[in-house]
Amino acid sequence: MKTLGNEIDRQQLLQRLQRVTPESRRRWGKMTPHQMICHLTDSFKAGTGQKAVGASDNMLNRTLVKWIALYAPVHWPHGVRTRPEMDQHAGGTKPVQFEPDRAALCDIIDRFSRQQRDFEWGSHPLFGRMPDRDWHRWGYLHVDHHLRQFRV
């Protein structure tokens, strides 16, 4: 099971991120590659507590939906609406320059993945409070989902 807690998995994901270009073509959704980079950075910032995000968790989301999303052997579905705080057309961070924005994403993935954290986990908007194992699995799956969106 791939996770950001595994150095090899994390390095492979970072290498795939380097293959994204501003011209990468999407297979689904509306985001540009640059918006996707900023969307992912915003999502990791929510996990590290650097970005406020509203909660819509409930018992079903914190248990069954979380288990399916993180541990069932299926890809995440396409077309799930992005939360406004992570949507670059709403409250998300606007893209500025592709290379510095991608570097910021790689930096926060590294920070997010460290064994010795210098932050306390935020609360996931759907899944609530999660341990390292779940955050690392979620982070891997979220980046992988969007890299597959752009054929990487």
Describe the structure.
With 152 residues, this protein is an all-alpha fold. The protein has a single domain (7-149), classed as Four Helix Bundle (Hemerythrin (Met), subunit A) (Up-down Bundle). It has helices at residues 7-18, 33-47, 59-71, 98-113, 132-149. Helix 1 packs parallel to helix 5. It is globular and about 40 Å long. The model has no long low-confidence stretch (mean pLDDT 95).
Keywords:
152 residues, mainly alpha, Four Helix Bundle (Hemerythrin (Met), subunit A), globular
What's the topology here?
Blueprint: H1 7-18, H2 33-47, H3 59-71, H4 98-113, H5 132-149
Helix pairs in contact: 1-4, 1-5, 2-4, 2-5
Brief sketch in words of this structure:
The chain is mostly helical.
- Whole-number tally of structural domains: 1
Number of contiguous helices: 5
Which overall shape is indicated by the principal axes computed on the Cα atoms? globular
Query: What is the end-to-end distance?
Result: 19 Å
- Beta fraction of the residues? under 5%
Q: Say how many strands there are.
A: 0
Rg from alpha-carbon coordinates = 14 Å
Low-confidence stretches: none
**N-to-C order of helices and strands:** HHHHH
> Main β-sheet, in a few words?
none
Oligomer: single chain
Q: Could you report the average pLDDT, rounded to the nearest whole number?
A: 95
Assigned CATH architecture: Up-down Bundle
The top-level CATH class is Mainly Alpha
Give the proportion of residues in helices. Answer: 40-55%
If you consult CATH, what is the topology?
Four Helix Bundle (Hemerythrin (Met), subunit A)
Pairing-aware structural class of the strands and helices?
Answer: mainly alpha
